[in-house]
């Protein structure tokens, strides 16, 4: 069994939830925050039999398709002054490219429901 941890952009969360449940895959959705932009994103925990890993990866790829460039004063734009306050001399980026999904695949030793 595998555990897929997928950090995705919020705008793709509903589509991904629908596609996963439509195909019968269980998932847990967590509200999360990116460490760099300090903006909200969504993290999915998806436990799957190893044989179905690629099927779920294909669903993630089609549900979270694109990269998106975000321009401007990113730290300030996302409503947090923490980064700027912590490193006032560090120049803030003017643009970053955020992926559709950042995915980690972990081996699961056991899955138990009690
Ligand atoms: P954030 O940490 O808010 O990062 C948003 C985007 O900012 C990243 O997009 C990347 O393009 C850029 N970025 C991140 N750190 C940077 C840095 N030190 N210098 C310059 N640019 C930087 P993605 O790579 O597509 O990541 C999207 C989100 O996925 C991240 O949001 C974070 O929540 C998660 N993520 C990415 N890599 C991760 C990792 N190694 N471990 C855990 N979560 C990760």
Question: Summarize this, please?
Answer:
With 114 residues, the chain is of the alpha+beta class.
Q: Could you characterize what this model shows?
A:
This protein has 114 residues and is of the alpha+beta class. It is built from four helices and six strands; from the N terminus they run βαββαβααββ. The strands form two sheets. The chain has a four-stranded antiparallel sheet with strand order 2-3-1-6, with helices on one face. A hairpin with a 6-residue loop joins strand 2 and strand 3. The two termini are 18 Å apart. The relative contact order is 0.27. About 5% of the residues have low confidence. It binds ligand 2BA. The site of ligand 2BA has 13 residues, from strand 5.
Helix-strand layout with pairing:
Layout: E1 2-8, H1 13-22, E2 28-33, E3 40-48, H2 53-63, E4 68-71, H3 74-77, H4 82-86, E5 95-98, E6 101-107
Antiparallel strand pairs: 1-3, 1-6, 2-3, 4-5
Bound molecules: ligand 2BA.
The site of ligand 2BA has 13 residues, from strand 5.
């Amino acid at each position: 069994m595998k555990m897929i941890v997928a950090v995705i952009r919020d705008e793709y969360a509903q589509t991904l939830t629908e596609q996963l449940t439509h195909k019968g895959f269980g998932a847990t959705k967590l509200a999360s925050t990116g460490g760099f932009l300090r903006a909200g994103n969504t993290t999915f925990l998806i436990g799957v039999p190893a044989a179905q890993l690629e099927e779920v990866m294909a669903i993630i790829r089609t549900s979270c398709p694109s990269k998106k460039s975000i321009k401007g004063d990113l730290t300030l734009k996302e409503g947090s002054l923490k980064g700027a306050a912590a490193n006032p001399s560090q120049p803030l980026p003017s643009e970053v490219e955020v992926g559709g999904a950042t995915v980690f695949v972990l081996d699961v030793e056991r899955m138990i429901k009690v």
